[in-house]
Design a protein that fits this description.
The chain is 33% helix and 25% strand. It has 8 helices and 10 strands.
Length: 245
């Protein structure tokens, strides 16, 4: 089967530092892939290359088997690659509808925003994710952490994301809201969306991901299936920088 995304021999240097050193990694349709490693391991740089923030010095990225030239975030979005950072990039003083269409508003012939159409599509986006949200007219600042995550996810899905990069999606969330985000990710997987999950919480990764890739010093030191390994074995990979056995 053709992978949803395949990164081949990716290299990125900053001065004399190889932040990403000959990394190859794949993501399958409907898969949640956990990406683990200490700070400075290279995982943030790697996903910024995939999302178009940085350009790789060398290597190749394929999307659905087709070579992709990702030189900007616009290129990535055009390919259906979206990123949700820990900050969520939501405007607290706007409601859910305005946040969903921020920068991509629906306008009529005279250039006025079509608020009715945007509200209708927002409702459909939440229904697609089986979400019950507060009143759409409420400001996002009044939403809980989990509800804000839902708005950020709905925004990417509405604009046809095929690959979703999630940076610490459950950080600062309580157990109940973490379980809601997990349910959202499961729903996304059912729609064939591939998710790359960056997290420092190994427990969350094991709960959510089917595979885990571990990085250290810019390199992928191992990729394992969560069903075929243990948290202690993955933790040893993170610390030692090599696979066991």
């Amino acid at each position: 089967m053709t992978s949803l995304v395949e990164m081949r021999s990716i290299v990125k240097t900053f001065g004399g530092l190889r932040a990403v050193d000959d990394v190859s990694l794949s993501l399958e349709s409907g898969e949640v892939l956990g990406l683990l490693g200490h700070n400075g391991a290279g995982k943030t740089t790697l996903i910024k290359i995939l999302s178009g923030v940085f350009a790789a010095d060398s290597g190749e990225i394929l999307v659905s088997g087709i070579p992709a030239h990702i030189r900007s975030t616009r290129d990535a979005k055009r390919l259906g690659i979206e990123t949700i950072y820990q900050s969520l990039a939501l405007s607290e003083n706007l409601d859910a509808v305005a946040n969903l269409f921020l920068g991509r508003e629906i306008c009529g012939r005279l250039g006025f925003m079509n608020e009715e159409a945007m509200e209708r599509q927002t409702i459909l986006a939440f229904e697609r994710l089986r979400l019950r949200m507060p009143r759409l007219s409420d400001l996002v600042s009044s939403y809980s952490g989990g509800q804000r995550q839902a708005v950020a996810i709905a925004r990417t899905i509405h604009f046809d994301a095929k690959v979703l990069i999630m940076d610490e999606p459950t950080a600062a969330l309580g157990p109940e809201e973490t379980s809601k985000v997990a349910a959202l990710m499961s729903e996304l997987s059912k729609h064939g969306i591939g998710i790359i999950l960056i997290s420092h919480d190994i427990h969350d990764v094991f709960d959510l991901a089917s595979r885990v890739a571990v990085m250290k010093n810019g390199r992928v030191v191992g990729v394992v299936r969560t069903a075929e390994t243990t948290k202690n074995e993955v933790l040893a990979m993170i610390i030692a920088g090599k696979t066991l056995g």
